[in-house]
Design goal:
- The protein is α+β, with helices and mostly antiparallel strands.
- The protein is 26% helix and 21% strand.
- The strands form 7 sheets. Strands 8-7-2-1-11-12 form a 6-stranded mixed sheet, with no helix packed on it.
- A hairpin with a 6-residue loop joins strand 14 and strand 15.
- The longest helix is centred in the C-terminal third of the chain and has 17 residues.
Length: 419
Amino acid sequence: MKVPVTSLLLLSSSMAFAELQLSEVLYDTPGTDLIEEWIEIYNPGCDLVDLSSYTLADNGSTFTLAGTLAANTYYVLAKNTSGFEALYGFSPDASGLSLSLGNSGDYVTLSKDGTQVYMLAWEGKVSGWDISAKHVSLYRTSISSSSSQSDWATSSIDTPSTGSLTQDCSGNTDTGSSVTYDGNYYDSVSSLSGSSLKAALQDLLETNHTKLSYSEVWDALQYTDEDADNTDNVILLYTGRSHSKDDRDGQTGFDNQSWNREHVWPKSLGFSSTSQYGYTDIHHIRPADKTVNSSRSNKDYDEGGSAQGEAADTYTTTESFEPMDDVKGDVARMIFYMDVRYDGSDGNMSDLYLVDNTASETGDPFFGVVCTLYTWHQNDEVDSQEMTRNNRIEEWQGNRNPLIDHPEWVTDFYSDQCG
């Protein structure tokens, strides 16, 4: 039996809080709706959730979930496995979704034990819900107990199985770094501080640096940025999307959803030739969605602007780019590495330095915004994935990022300017 729209209007303003949230829906697909539509659910809590007490429904059908969903994890339910795989290169968590998800106005509800807890509607099916998306998904922008159109946005590239929603389930209130480095790489400089330490680190990083070719960077990134949960994939920097290693720019079948090599410190700012160390230094090169990379261009990092559109919680202006919170600290420490590593003594590299503005232009050897990056470093601590990447880079390139291993050195080097 179809649910009357009037009852949805009453429920949408007073929903019960649930352990799960609707997080992304593709209802108007680029190909065939019958095999390509999907719904993503997110567990924002810190406990395993039994899915069997939950149902999804639209204006005509009901579907009962099954299995469990781990804390801080996404779950994708597709209509058809092969249709989903053709779009994204990997399998959904489950298939067989029977909801119609109409293109000309519909809704989907999430209920627990018969009580509706969340709703998403589109194209005017429910009053107050006029949002629409053609050939791309609708995604939730933040964790919320409400259910309103303001919680949702239209993506220009959908990201099933990943996103910007996150929950800290560590239970650790310590403000220090969550992981530490206990190796001996820095023994020769451990007694130094300030400018003396920074200069000694430059020498250490240069001495141990094996320069890669630009073609070797492809292979290196497939190892350094490998998805621990799916070793056939890499994690893309700005979207957080897990994406097939094989679907990269220049390969057979590549398109705008493929990944390419993002220079976090833009190569146009100080090292435009592949013969230069910075051009192939994988400490600041990351796999990224091709069109998000293009959108970032060579803009400085700063806060503010309009929503980028493809990467969730990402904003941009004509001069600056602000990534999602989850990677801000990672980005900052890569930029600080470049400032420490390159002081002009390599012979073919400029002296790279940081500024506190967005004035950099093509050809300049400087980059900003240093105090924004300093704040990002403080707010987004080093995690195990970042440390694992640092370890793997050492295997390929021979040197390490000291600002990951010793985040306190960021304060030592930049607090006078930004503290």
